[in-house]
Write a structure and sequence with these properties.
- With about 325 residues, this protein is mainly alpha-helical.
- It has one domain (about 20-310): Serine Threonine Protein Phosphatase 5, Tetratricopeptide repeat.
- It has helices at about 10-20, 75-85, 90-105, 135-150, 155-165, 170-185, 190-205, 210-220, 225-240, 245-255, 260-265, 280-310, 315-325; strands spanning about 40, 45.
- Strand 1 and strand 2 form a beta hairpin.
- Helix 2 (about 75-85) crosses helix 10, helix 8 runs antiparallel to helix 9 (about 225-240) and helix 10 (about 245-255) packs antiparallel against helix 11 (about 260-265).
- It comes from Seminavis robusta.
- This is Repeat-containing protein.
- InterPro entries: TPR-like_helical_dom_sf.
């Protein structure tokens, strides 16, 4: 059963404790997920934020107007269950499994693809309005929109987007997030400290810096706490519907829950792979929808600033205009 949570900045710690106390999963963390390498959308990533889609069938080729890749939920669920029950056979077997998975063709085919932009399914969480934009946050939003638009040209902007998302609260906070990521990659011995760091970051900066929330979702998934991971993943997507890491993550979460309907729905929202010699119509449609969503979020944030502080003072505007008038200097 899904949980609908209203998350405020002051109540973040209470919310996290609620997630911990109501999580129904208690399984031994799978050792094969101690260090994760996934290939998707921009080369090989050791970033653990990519860990939640390591068993998914990525959109490995452009449709060219034909068949579309579809996520095989039952296959992923069986693999997840097998890994959790057997311990996965260590990192070597995980790497072998990953290599096999990335080479597989989809086993289910969809109807002929339509390049119309695809919107995400409904979310089960409610979050408060974002705080007012600062000058630097406005600049970051503009840079994010530009980078999202560049996804139609290839994967170069994928790394830039991850860097931007990591650094949204400055270098010190980014360093703490990187440290939490390193601890997560160390396996169970580092998970408790990683969780402490991530929860502290969420408490300090709120849920509108989504990367700590995204990484905590990754950590919970690795521990088998998939209900908590689902809620956190939905929070990320409520703030950034275009967050391609969380879009892949939530598919794997629903697969782990054996919720094939939602897994398939969300699989259609993942970032399609870029084919250098393909038409990339799905990729273009995805990027266009992401830009539209990001612009809409930006406009709404600007409106909130206006609602809080009112319209610009007419005298101030006229005075600023006069300063740049050539006649004013004569």
């Amino acid at each position: 059963m899904h949980k609908t949570c209203f998350i405020g900045f002051a109540s973040t710690v209470v919310f996290i404790n609620f997630i911990l106390s109501t999580d129904a999963f208690s399984v031994t963390p799978p050792p094969l997920l101690q260090r994760l390498v996934a290939t998707r959308g921009g080369g090989i990533h050791t970033d653990v934020s990519f860990s939640l889609h390591v068993f998914s069938n990525s959109n490995n080729h452009d449709d060219g107007g034909g068949d579309e890749d579809v996520f095989d939920v039952e296959q992923a669920r069986k693999r997840l269950e097998g890994f959790w029950m057997t311990g996965g056979g260590g990192e070597e077997s995980f790497s072998s499994e990953l290599q096999q998975q990335t080479m597989e063709r989809p086993t289910i085919r969809s109807p002929t693809y339509s390049p119309a932009p695809h919107k995400n399914p409904e979310l089960d969480v409610v979050i408060p309005p974002a705080p007012p934009l600062t000058t630097i946050e406005r600049e970051r939003r503009e840079a994010e929109i530009q980078l999202l638009g560049q996804l139609v040209e290839g994967d170069e902007s994928v790394t830039d987007l991850w860097t931007l998302w990591f650094s949204e609260r400055g270098s010190d906070a980014a360093q703490q997030l990187v440290r939490a990521e390193e601890l997560t990659g160390e396996g169970p011995s580092g998970w408790q400290r990683a969780e402490e760091i991530l929860r502290d970051l969420i408490e300090e900066h709120g849920v509108y810096w989504v990367e700590p929330v995204n990484h905590l979702a990754t950590l919970y998934y690795m521990q088998g706490r998939v209900d908590a991971a689902e809620t956190l993943c939905q929070i990320v997507l409520a703030v950034k519907p275009w967050h391609f890491g969380a879009l892949s993550s939530i598919v794997m979460i629903y697969a782990a829950q054996a919720n094939s309907e939602k897994a398939r729905l969300w699989a259609a929202s993942r970032l399609p792979a870029f084919a250098p010699n393909g038409a990339n119509r799905r990729r273009i449609a995805w990027a266009e929808q992401a830009v539209l969503s990001a612009k809409e979020s930006f406009v709404n944030a600007e409106k909130r600033v206006q609602d809080l502080f009112g319209e610009p003072d007419d005298y101030s505007v006229e005075q600023q205009t006069d300063m740049w008038d050539d006649d004013a200097w004569q």
